[in-house]
Amino acid sequence: MLPLPESAILLGQQAADWRAAVLLAGSALEASGATTGEYGPRMVAMVEEFGAYIVIAPGLALAHARPGPDVLAEGLAVVTLANPVVFGHAHNDPVSVVLGLAVQSVDEHVTGIAELANVFNDESVIPRLAGARSAADVQQLLDPQR
Amino acid sequence: MKIVAICGAGIGTSGILKVNAERALARLDLEAEVTASDLASVATAAADAQVILTSPEFVEAIGKTNADVIVVQNYFDVDELTAKLEAALG
């Protein structure tokens, strides 16, 4: 599983808009030591360039950017929003859970992503994450074997 | 048979699409090579692909192609992927 330390989990956050929500995921990745502060704005730039495609399921955004020197280690962050925000996705808005993903190379993340897909194929996970009360709950939901 | 999952960066979202497309193919008892790629490499990555899997945002940018372009709404919904792949390949 991709590393998800407690420092990378922010619960019940206030975000004025999708940019603020993605930047919170960037802050969480930075706080955990996975990235530098430049990575959050790069995740925002992906959405500005390509649109809201990172909203991959109802209520869930997977924020990420390409590997770069601002990625110090692979890692995951989880941000839950007190008030869901709109990204502009035709089907999956509004978003209440933002995942942040940082990887150092395109190849290294495949196993971690497969495990993430496993977890989220259970459709109850997104609402349960949105309602999680502690970092331990989030870690348990994302990595049931831990 | 070759299937290409396309997203903006070629990591993250297309990786999830690849994993779940492989699950859908297993359900349909079909064999195919599924790769994940970014939009910038679509011309080469999808040159000999039968199917391109992607988000609504990328359909226009993918442009003219001989492949069937399948638009996916919920990347974690293997039922949706299975039904759409079956319709395209069946």
UniProtKB/TrEMBL annotation, chain A:
Protein name in the entry: Ascorbate-specific PTS system EIIA component
Annotated keywords: Cytoplasm, Kinase, Phosphoprotein, Phosphotransferase system, Transferase, Transport
PTS EIIA type-2 domain residues: 2-145
Protein's job: The phosphoenolpyruvate-dependent sugar phosphotransferase system (sugar PTS), a major carbohydrate active transport system, catalyzes the phosphorylation of incoming sugar substrates concomitantly with their translocation across the cell membrane. The enzyme II UlaABC PTS system is involved in ascorbate transport.
Organism: Subtercola frigoramans
Compartment annotation: Cytoplasm
Chief location bin: cytoplasm
Entry superkingdom: Bacteria
Keyword Transferase listed: yes
InterPro entries assigned to the protein according to its UniProt record, in alphabetical order: Ascorbate-PTS_EIIA_comp, PTrfase/Anion_transptr, PTS_EIIA_type-2_dom
UniProtKB/TrEMBL annotation, chain B:
Keywords: Transferase
PROSITE patterns per record: PTS_EIIB_TYPE_2 (PS51099)
Cited Pfam families: PTS_IIB (PF02302)
Residue intervals of the PTS EIIB type-2 domain: 1-90
Record Gene3D superfamilies: 3.40.50.2300
Name of the featured protein: PTS system ascorbate-specific IIB component
Origin species: Subtercola frigoramans
